[in-house]
Amino acid sequence: MDDLEDKAKQEESKNQESEIKTKNPEELNSKDDSNKGVQHHNKYIEDDDESGYMLFMQQFLKTFILSWALREMIYTNSDGGARGNPGPGAIGVIVRREGEILRRYSGFIGESVTNNIAEYEGLIKALEIASEYTKDEVTCILDSELIVKQLLGEYRVKHPKLLELFLKVQRLQEGFNKIRYLHVSRWNKFQRIADELLNEELDNLGYKKYRYKK
Questions:
Q1: pLDDT one-digit tens code per residue, 90-109
Q2: Range of the domain at 114
Q3: Alpha carbon distances (Å) from 194 to 31, 82, 212
Q4: What number of other Cβ atoms are within 10 A of residue 32's Cβ?
Q5: Would 183 disulfide with which of 8, 116, 148, 163, CB 3.0-4.6 Å?
Q6: How far apart are alpha carbons 98 and 76 in whole angstroms?
Q7: Residue at a domain's end among 72, 105, 121
Q8: Residues 205, 210, 214, CA angle at the centre, nearest 5°?
């Protein structure tokens, strides 16, 4: 009788173990699926973080390169004028890297020139000086709207002397990878320096009666 009871208990114990064994894999699978979901979710978060970081770095590098390029770009401010138009003329030029002035130049260009001729002469000298600092990109700034529009092809160049100077500018352009012309007010702080340079040149030569003003 005791043997039968022992066998019955053993069978019951085996059934319970079998039940546990058949039940546990499902629970384990469920837990595994849950863990996989968490892992996938974490992977998506990591991927998003990595993608966001890469975009941030790309934007940072673009901004840095642009800022560096702007700091390294060469700018010229040129001006030219004649007292009497035509009359004695001079030019004033500054070549700079952003706010840092690299060169100042002034020169007398003749006893009988017009303002427009003087403006072209100033630009030509500015390009010649700029070529000593870069062969890449240069921005030429003038306060003569006429000259800028002629250089941009918006106005025709009809005067023979101006055409001669215009073509000289075109030849000088070939020494740079890129060139840009910009018109500004004569009250621009750098343009005023160029204006003062040419007026001082004429003053020093004794042409004080008709101080050049635009």
A1: 999 999 998 999 999 999 99
A2: 74-204
A3: 79, 14, 13
A4: 11
A5: 148
A6: 10
A7: 72
A8: 110
